[in-house]
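Example record

One chain of 458 residues, shown exactly as stored in the release files.
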Amino acid sequence: MKKLFSTGIGMTCLMALLMASCQPTGSKGGGDKATYQLPEVEDVIMYQVNPRVFAPEKSLQAVASRIDSIADLGVNVMWVMPIYPIGTEKTKNSPYSISDYTAVAPEFGTIDDFKALVDSCHAHGMSIILDWVANHTAWDSKWMKEGHKDWYTQDSTGAVIFPPGTDWTDVADLNYDNADMRAAMREAMLFWIKDVGIDGFRCDVADQVPADFWHGAIDSLRKAAAPRRILMLAEGANVDNFTVGGFDMNYAWGFMHDMREVWKGESARLAFESDSTEYSQLPKGKVKMRFTTNHDESTKATPFGMFGGDRGAMAAWVGTVFLHGGPLVYGSQEVGYEQPINFFHYVPVNWMAKPEIRAEYKQLIALLKAHPALLKGDLSTYPDNDVMAFTKSGAGKQDKFLVLVNVRNAAKTITLPTDWAGAAVEDLMTGNQQKLETTATLQPYEYRIVSLKNPVRQ
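Predicted structure tokens for this chain:
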């Protein structure tokens, strides 16, 4: 059987992308701040910043120095992990052990450094959201020092406790039965929206905070930001995040775990079943954030290790984000970082490593932006044990795309959907145009993304 497509990125495309990705970064603006606006939730393509992989100190300035490179990937939302001062009592050096909600830790820089990063993101056409930890604080937090013990959950002896059901002994659990604490939490969030100008929050362990608190707080944030829109992302999986809380996005935890099982040998059908389960519960206009890694997962293993090397990691990302939108890139995966990253400590990343991987992410993101149907079009799936095969269609079915992802580290052949067999297509990764056959053979961890041209039957 003749080979239908070239694998990976076309040489001309690759050289151009490599040249662009290796350009030096600086502080030049990439857009007009006056025309900047938050993307619609279905168009969000997010980049997660862990400041501790950028520099051991003054890391906000280090992030700002790479803003051109981050924006050049094509992402439109930057999520920055917690930058607040960290407690010293019972500390594990976690950025999620916060002592003051309205300050910046000296390790990361100053409030002016963060404001400069916000302005730079907007100038580059990117939104910026900040990690928010509403479930707990450091044991020596500002609130604790001010004598607000009643703002914390206590046991039968009156002792403040760490979050029940966890081993998070470095933090104290907050008491949402206390109205004064709720008001103080809401005011702290408003500070970052009104005074600093961020575009929303990623809310840590959102399922452990009452949904009615989120409802009131998010309503206040939206009113304070108006006429600007804000983006609210819940680190949770409950449908209450949407129906009660008012969030725009939450996590596709179940899908992530199921994709890993597929890569371990489960049928590729599991990915479609998992996707259908998640989206069948989702209110219209809401989105699941899709990812192959993030700061929590990367402490265990990177996509390189979890999915069988660079090719497996790229195939997994394509299958994850092209099936349904809400794409996330965790800062370091775009350079194929191979070792786990413990976000409790500084871990240096070589941003010039594997430029071909970075170029591939850039090209894939460009496809998602150039062809909205790939991000949010109508989905049809074609179950197979070894290949994820699905189509995405735009309005009126004028734009139609076929995506094939080999989930195995071995060549696999799949029978193509009948309405694609013999069709004239363009391979969006290479630009090649040709006719499909009735079957397609994919090399180990190969993926293909093709668009339908004028159908020509053999």
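Notes: Residues 1-34 have pLDDT under 50 and may be disordered.
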